[in-house]
Amino acid sequence: MTSAGGIPYLAIPGPSVMPERVLRAMHRSAPNIYEGDLIDMTAGLIPDLRAVARTSGDVAIYVANGHGAWEAALANTLMPGDKVLTMATGRFGHGWADIAAGLGVETELMDFGRSAPADPARLEARLRADADGRIKAVLATHVDTSTSVRSDMAALRAAIDAAGHPALLMADCIASLACDRFEMDRWGVDVAVAASQKGLMVPPGLGFVFFGERAAQTRAALPRVSRYWDWGPRADPDGFYQYFGGTAPTHHLYGLRAALDMIAEEGIGAIWDRHAHLARTIWAACEAWSDGGPLALNVAVPDHRSHAVTALRIGAPHGRDLRQWLRANAGVTLGIGLGMSDPDDPGGDGYFRIGHMGHVNAHMVLGVLGAMQAGMTALGIPHGSGALERAASVAAGP
Question: Domains, the chain, ranges and CATH?
Fold first, then answer.
């Protein structure tokens, strides 16, 4: 088999597959950034972004990736010397904590490993012990892209409330927004951060911070926020340029408009259902392969797994070899084992990830699974039988 012909498929957990409709919307000459259609179109993005995050709160748009959105959320709610509690379920929880530390924020890490979600009981106990209220915010990753662990944001909010603690709940939804069910207002999330290159199906380059009333009040009480990161002018601009702290990311905005139209047409509930169905299709194949070989889902409990990305362990060097074979021979690129290294596998070569977020359907997922089975066969990696039949059965179901 060779990838010399046909369209290569990027099955990584972001940047995700970009729809032709998004690409066509972006393929245009530079627009006028001072008046005209772009200005009117941008104002219309805001209510549609709120609808995706399920919030009546505000949203600020940044010319940034997810790391920039992390920093923006922190810059508007914390000052140097403040303290946060970070609930880490993989590499990206640690990453957000590192951004906080770089801002002079004292960071306490509660690490749940790489295969389990954040534990609300541990959170409640820790906040009860924080009698003087030093912890100003709880940082939690809804879905950690490196491990595919999904945490229960509503349960974390309930734990904060049960402890009678005033800490803000801040959720990293970069991998989950418009993929996994996320209900910002209903779940009591005060701040949510997201980015354009995953469930929103737009190239990397836009970061989003959604914030509710409690977070807005926290921002209003701060003595200062850096001009660029300040979400106030972005959420309530006097002039168009204030949406972005300067020149607008023009072509990203056209792509985002097309993507939000597609999301509205399908319906966010239907999108959540589609992602859940496709995730179960992948899991069915992986469980069958694991019956006769080293492959295993990184997260054992289905309710703790993301519907946008699946992390797998297969043992070194099989993960690296399988990825390389698929890219060279089948035109399929899988995600690396990001943040999954250990003393016996310093390169994380025993892990890989399948991205199934955004603009994906059954034939794309089944194609990846078929290519993976071909690769394991070609490389002599032991695996159980009947995986593709099981996946097809799940894909064919309701």
Answer: 20-265 (3.40.640.10), 267-396 (3.90.1150.10)
Q: Rounded CA gap, 20 and 156, in Å? A: 38
Helix axes 91-102 and 66-75, enclosed angle (nearest 10): 50
pLDDT tens-place values along the chain, 398 residues long: 565 578 899 999 999 999 999 999 999 999 999 999 999 999 999 999 999 999 999 999 999 999 999 999 999 999 999 999 999 999 999 999 999 999 999 999 999 999 999 999 999 999 999 999 999 999 999 999 999 999 999 999 999 999 999 999 999 999 999 999 999 999 999 999 999 999 999 999 999 999 999 999 999 999 999 999 999 999 999 999 999 999 999 999 999 999 999 999 999 999 999 999 999 999 999 999 999 999 999 999 999 999 999 999 999 999 999 999 999 999 999 999 999 988 889 999 999 999 999 999 999 999 999 999 999 999 999 999 999 999 999 999 87
Q: How many CB atoms are located within 10 Å of the residue 34 CB? A: 10
Dihedral angle sign, alpha carbons of residues 367, 325, 350, 143: negative
- Find, among 271, 37, 260, the residue nearest to 176 by Cα: 271
- How many whole angstroms separate alpha carbon 30 and alpha carbon 251? 8
End-to-end CA distance of the chain: 33
Measure the CA–CA gap between 251 and 228, rounded to whole angstroms. Answer: 21
Distance, in Å, from the CA atom of 393 to the CA atom of 162, rounded to the nearest integer, reads 43
Q: How far from 231 is each of 60, 155, 255, CA to CA, in Å? A: 6, 27, 22
Vertex 18 angle, CA 368 and 308, to 5°:
55
Measured distance CA(213)–CA(133) in Å, rounded? 20
What does the alpha-carbon distance between residue 300 and residue 286 come to, in Å, rounded to a whole number? 12
Buried b (16+ CB within 10 A) or exposed e, 85-120: bbbbbbbbbbbbbebbeebebbbeebebebbebbbb
Question: What tokens were used for 332?
Answer: 């399929």
β-pair partners for 24: none
